[in-house]
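Help!! Second protein's tokens look totally different from the first
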Amino acid sequence: MALLPEDIIDRLIQMERRLNALSTAVHTRPPLTEITNGSLTLKRQPKPEDPVTVVAHLTTSGPGGTKPVLRFNDAYGHEILSDDILSGGLARPWLPMLPPQDMASANWPATSVTTAWTTIAQSQNPIWQPKMRLRMFTRVSSGATGQIRVMVGGVQFGATVAAGSVFDHTGVVTDDMQADFGKDVTVEIQAQVTSASGTVYAKPVLMHGRQT
């Protein structure tokens, strides 16, 4: 057998050592905690709608290594999303909450019109989620009857209810979230007296977005 040049033998030995070192590093290197000038790709799993299937799970250890901490900062270092490590849930953003409402029905939005639906309250809200829940108290003057309905973007939202009952409905506010995301939608409360005379009152007490 011909003898190989000594420099080739040395090179093979060096290559073997490097391969061993690389193998050791792959199995012993610490977890990656920072990406500089790179990108992170999160791939969807076959059934992302399955709550048991984890599509993306970003956590790190909190105080004492027992609580998860999640923080998202923008390019200027502003904290735009974070969790509450003391009690759970969101710390930021701060979500709007409905202030206490006047429960004297005489001060509520109302109508005495008997000939047509009348808008007695209206608001505009950006679409951040595909569904919405609205809960509302209604009243009617003594001896009278009436109806209440809600319109969202000109389309009826939920069923028409008899005045005096509670309206509580969760439903879709957009069928095309990609096109409507962030756009303003108009929410109207409409009422009508169905007896010869009287007054119908309505007061929303809860409204918030919901996920699909």
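Here's the second one for comparison:
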Amino acid sequence: MPTTPLPEILAPAFAERYGVPAINVFNELSMAAVLEGAVEVRSPLIVQTSVKTVKQMGARTLFAIWESLTRDIEIPVALHLDHCPDRDVITECLETGWTSVLFDAHELPVEENQRQTIEVVAQARKHGAAVEGEIEAITGVEDGLGTDAPSERQTLDVQLRYLEATGVDVFAPALGNAHGAYKEAPVLDFERVSAIVEAHPVPIALHGGSGLSDEQFKEMIARGTAKVNISTALKHAFMKSGLEYLKECEASDKWEPVKLFDVQARAMRELAMDMANTFGSAGRA
């Protein structure tokens, strides 16, 4: 099965009220592991790359890995560029083959954000790609992007004007969520999702999904959150499973790099499977 356009993955999720895991990967091992997990539970999957990962590995190298891993895959998968304020990086990824991008221009005035987003949508359409839009900061710093300062909330009227003018395929409002590890239980604005979706039916993206409760996930998804982002949890699975194995290596003085990779891959694969089951996407592919 070839790579599936993001709107085709999210349309049934939005209509039937299940969430699709959108997992940020950082190397070949993590990409392979989450894809394997999604295949095992027959879930659609959105694989996300940060700007930092694209710059570190190189867009062509990263996309070559993606093509190799998904060439014969039998579930719907999409490759998404997460939080990117850099138009040059967006251009590079679209020209290389990414199927969707998040143009993150929340630091600009809404009018300028909207004007540039219209340009990015037009550019993406020429490549058969989709665009996620954002006009409010998601609290927290991830991969060097973001801020810990609370975001200014825009009114529903402002949000609707932006959605109508830009035609973005996915919308990421601030909902009380945050990137990174939560220091305390977040208070999510469920009604905000319902208000946006009722006025302008568009799949909502929930950022900062790592650390939310199953009940919070399910309530958000029931209201129209079709794309659920997971990043920190995957990093924890990778690092903590590796740390535990390295402690065993130190105790026994036996060092097996391949076994280390197996342990980390299993932890990340299981995380992807757990997320698909929690979000209701398992068995949908």
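Reply: Different proteins will give different token patterns, so don't panic. The longest strand covers residues 77-84.
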